[in-house]
Amino acid sequence: MAAVAPWDLLDLDSLLTDEERDVRDLARRVANDRVRPSVADWYENGSTPVRDLAAEFGKLGLLGMHLTGYGCAGSTAVAYGLTCMELEAADSGVRSLVSVQGSLAMYAIWKFGSEEQKQRWLPGMAAGELIGCFGLTEPDHGSDPANMSTRARRDGDDWVLNGGKMWITNAPLADVAVIWARTDEGVVGFAVPTDTPGFSAREIKHKMSLRASSTGEITLDDVRLPASARLPEARGLKAPLSCLTEARFGIIWGALGAARDCLVTAVDYATTREQFGRPIGGFQLTQAKLADMAVELQKGFLLALHLGRLRDSAGSLRPEQVSVGKLNNVREAIKIARQCRTILGGNGISGEYPIMRHANNLESVLTYEGTSEIHQLVIGQKLTGLNAFAG
């Protein structure tokens, strides 16, 4: 019997427009040509040519591609999601570079910044000439940003920032950092040039996950900023949380890419690896595993596409809708990666195959932009009308 690729099981491509398929194919080509040949070495060495990749992605219009103006492509949400999927099929760390640049740092400036800030930062960021990061998470305040320790106080016409941020993608290389701090008037955002005295970013080493990504710890030691550095439209914690919602949308799609790459690898292996005189894909237990994973992959895509269509028609998604997508797709992706590893047996842990790298990366994806537990509580609160975050 003729075999079909996992993605062709339900003919999912038929649900996309010609333009969406073109964008998807462009992202797939750049991932195949620029990322796949080297990513295993980047991961093993814990070093990635972030600036080179950003410049290439910028030339192709992939940075901040779902934003409008200031050199951004103004693409649809579905096209952006498909791009995230193809990039993460190569590696989650590479997709994180694009997500943090476009959906966190650029989006925060685009949504809440002044016209002067937008003109100063966004064109260079869209081109990949400037790198941005997003400083919200802190060493002692991950899932509870309302109690962040970073403070900003007024000193004449200036602001002075003190505190620290942790697990910040792109921070060691960033030209601008969007920093969130508590003030007497609530949570406030700032576009901070990283060459400002008192700002420092230390590369976090010894990661077992997202090794093909630059991650840093930011220290703010009496960082003095002019009033013009404040994001004027960002008022309260709702502003950074809306940025997280923006980024989570890309993760909903990206996780599918990692899962798909694992499943394609496992199917190929199962049809060529022989044990007991025949390919292991011919055994019922192996086929049951492959079938269950393929079903979850199709369901995850349909969920992501539905959310993308909603966003393109309505202009935005409700937070609980994004939480449904992030919770389901990342949770299922990591299950798929782990199951695919079992099909490859001992070879599943080898860097010659991408599965263990994807599985390790997805451990971080499961945690960042809201843990699974946080998304369960978001959904639970919407279902019951009761806030369970406080205990």
From TrEMBL:
Native species: Paractinoplanes tereljensis
What UniProt keywords apply to this chain's record, in alphabetical order?
A: FAD, Flavoprotein, Oxidoreductase, Transit peptide
Report the cofactors. FAD
Example of a GO biological process term: fatty-acyl-CoA biosynthetic process
Which residue ranges does the record assign to the Acyl-CoA dehydrogenase/oxidase N-terminal domain?
Answer: 17-129
- Tell me if Protease is a UniProt keyword of this record: no
The family assignment reads: Belongs to the acyl-CoA dehydrogenase family.
All copies of the Acyl-CoA dehydrogenase/oxidase C-terminal domain together span 235-383
Acyl-CoA oxidase/dehydrogenase middle domain mapped to chain residues: 133-223
Q: Which GO terms describe its molecular function?
A: fatty-acyl-CoA binding; flavin adenine dinucleotide binding; glutaryl-CoA dehydrogenase activity
Name the UniProt record assigns to this protein: Glutaryl-CoA dehydrogenase
Per the UniProt record, one Pfam family is Acyl-CoA_dh_1
